[in-house]
Amino acid sequence: MKRKTLLFKEQGVTAQYSIFGENHSLEMHVIFHVEPRGELFDGQYARVKEAFSLFLSNYPTFKPIFKRFFLSDATNQSPLIPKEQNCCVSIIQQPPLDASKLAVWCYLATDVKVKGESGKVSVEHGSFTDYFHGTMYDPSGDSYHQTKKILESYEKQLTENEMTMTDNCLRTWFFIRDVDTQYAGMVKARRENFVEQGLTEKTHYIASTGIGGNPAHPSALVQMDAYSVKGLKPNQFKHLYASTHLNPTYEYGVTFERGTVVLYGDRSHVLISGTASIDNKGNVLYVGNVEKQCHRLWENVEMLLKEGGATFDDVTQMIVYLRDGADYEMIKELYQKRFPDHPVVFTLAPVCRPTWLIEMECQAITEKGNSNFENF
């Protein structure tokens, strides 16, 4: 894993990025941060867009596949972000905590064929096809009914591509407006939907993050992004539990896996769900102390990575969610000390339990493949 940082001084943009691979089928995760410079959103967006073009000129063989825009005011800012061809775009209001109006996380790869536009793309690589869905919402009804409609629409799209939620969906993100009051409706609808799909505590669930975030549409209470893969063989992915540190999520009424590892012949992808300061009985640890909660979530993530055959050295990108923006400077310092080179974005996004002050998700790629499966 190579990690680098590029500063585009004229544009006032910093790109933190990681690259996995040497000669073929390279993968990259990059996070763009922009200096505020006291200007309107369109000025900051224009500078990020210019820096991204300059960045790609340094890596012309990489194709952008997925972008997530973390915005300070999604309703007013999202209309200024154009749709893209051959790149899935996710837009959510989770204000970056560096006082800027936006940050961008982008996943890129070489030796792939990307088709589609902002809402959905397919990515062919080897004998596999990845599908990225972004910014899915339905603005009618309460959080329960909106989630129900989103999942039904997503299932229909999977079926059209000869896939199912059970066999092909590996990762979801649920963004909930006013998570303290609307989360329960999303959880109920997801649980009922999963039972219909055969996803239960006796089978498996899906790696996920459920977090506070405002969709751009003012009436949308829930928004979902999703990642699925077509062409996987039985037993090509497995779920992570870290049972010494974490409990099964169904024990406290929710339905997601702590993490998932996907095995390829030449590598493994480790997808870590949103993880907070919790013990293996489901209790929140260190209530009121964000610093201790940060150390505990690191410990939990480390155990999940270990179970997936990875370490923090294999992590490609991290997203850190804080309930209280006043904790940003302290948490940023802790991360910079332990992970000085890792691409990371810090956003204002309340976690699903009010006493959780911080949550983190990440992805990792390792060289530990499995020869029973095709290369990535």
Describe this protein's structure:
The chain has 376 residues and is α+β, with helices and mostly antiparallel strands. It has 3 domains: 1-116, 60s Ribosomal Protein L30, Chain: A (2-Layer Sandwich), CATH 3.30.1330; 126-232, RutC-like (60s Ribosomal Protein L30, Chain: A, 2-Layer Sandwich); 236-376, RutC-like (60s Ribosomal Protein L30, Chain: A, 2-Layer Sandwich), CATH 3.30.1330.40. Helix content is 24%, strand content 34%. The protein is built from 7 helices and 18 strands. Strands 1-2-3-6-4-5 form a 6-stranded mixed β-sheet. Strands 7-8-9-12-10-11 form a 6-stranded mixed β-sheet. Strand 16, helix 7 (328-338) and strand 17 (344-348) form a beta-alpha-beta unit. Helix 3 (143-160) crosses helix 5. The radius of gyration is 19 Å and the shape is globular.
Summary of the model, kept short:
The protein has 376 residues and is an alpha+beta fold. The protein contains seven helices and 18 strands. The protein folds into three domains: 1-116, 60s Ribosomal Protein L30, Chain: A (2-Layer Sandwich); 126-232, RutC-like (60s Ribosomal Protein L30, Chain: A, 2-Layer Sandwich); 236-376, RutC-like (60s Ribosomal Protein L30, Chain: A).
What is the strand and helix layout of this fold?
Elements: E1 2-8, E2 13-20, E3 27-34, H1 41-58, E4 63-71, H2 74-77, E5 88-93, E6 102-109, E7 113-117, E8 120-125, E9 128-136, H3 143-160, H4 165-168, E10 169-176, H5 179-196, E11 207-212, E12 222-230, E13 237-240, E14 259-263, E15 268-275, H6 290-307, E16 315-322, H7 328-338, E17 344-348, E18 358-366
Parallel strand pairs: 4-5, 10-11, 16-17
Antiparallel strand pairs: 1-2, 2-3, 3-6, 4-6, 7-8, 8-9, 9-12, 10-12, 13-14, 14-15, 15-18, 16-18
